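Chain A, query sequence.
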Amino acid sequence: MSWVIRVPSSTSNLGAGFDSVGLALNLYLDLKVTTAAQEWKFIPASDCIMDIPTGKENLIYKIAIETALQFGYDDLPPCTVELKSDIPLARGLGSSATATIAGIELANLLLNLNLAAEEKLDIATKIEGHPDNVAPCLMGGCVIGHFDYEVNWTKTAVNNITFLAIIPDFELKTKEARAALPKTFNYQESVHASSIANVSVAAICQGNWELLGRMMKKDLFHQPYRKPLVPHYDELEFYLEKYAYGTFLSGAGPTMIAIVDNQVVEQQLDKWKKEYSQFEWLPLQVENEGLVTMKLNVSY
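Chain A, predicted structure.
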């Protein structure tokens, strides 16, 4: 028996929506899963994942067995899993979140758990500790979520706007980015910061990108503390100011994302690539569908 599992990437911490607002993007992790194997084997078929573990130490397997244990299973039938991905690792574009969702879905299929989407989201959020990176990978679109023992969330579709990812050639681990954040806010700071985030969410739901861009520049939750970890941030933000509605750190970074009209990207992308050739420039669209699973009856 074989399945194909496709999980879109995500950008999280969207502007001032720290740990609560994320978008699914049209970069994907694809798995072809074949049962009746002798042992677990993960076969990478894309350059960016060539160094991943190929046995049970693989993150996808670890998530799958963790999911299985929650439902009283202590084993999973061995599979061969062919992996394709165009998501850069450790760049703030949801590579670990896609692995989490893929692992949960893998257990769901192998054990016939018949989990609803909300159940998968609950498992994923408890693993991650917050919903903003995993929820878009699962649900698609823009997901605004809150987690406190249970996940409360809402989704809105986003269309006809480009999220331009500017990807440097170095990694930034989430643990390092988390360490840069303050331990506490006082009451007045918290009210001010949350009001910025509230307006940001309203702007996303209305497709008011100009307003969202203004709010991104005012963020107090994470970007001011993480920008020093990305030496080129201020320079690129200033460079793109006349073209983009706003620029923000994707996830924990170091990828930056600029929100730009589709036509502007078409007109200017070659120029940007030439003037800042040390970065990878990826014009991305929001993936509004989320996780897709298909049973195969033919070769992949």
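The first strand starts at residue 2 and ends at 11. Residues 162-284 form a domain with the Alpha-Beta Plaits fold (CATH 3.30.70.890).
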